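Handoff note, outgoing to incoming analyst
You'll be picking up this chain. Sequence as last confirmed:
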Amino acid sequence: MTYRTVEVWNKQRNFWHGRGAGMTLMPGHLAEEQRKILREVALAYRRVMRAPQEPAVTRAEISRRDQKRESEALAAAAAEYRRLNPSASDDPREVSGEVNQMIAAAINADPRWFWHGPDA
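Most recent structure output, in case you need it:
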């Protein structure tokens, strides 16, 4: 198996595979199918983050609420990623890394759309 064959296989298996730490994922360089997955994953995260918040008074309550919401948003994004990409890894850490890269890419590509755009 040549390097090129392995590279193509990895892209077919999981198109986020092989991205090293410090590499920025750019939506413009992705295939249409990959951009659709990135968009849906980012929207799943954003929907949870933009949901109405439960009231909190103390700093500790606010911190716990925000941590809980962040965890729920990442879980929703990971579930969406697994739904759209059946070949996604079974390793939760690998999926988490891929999902975080996608969310960061969506934010970096257009922060205004990500945080203030319409909920699609």
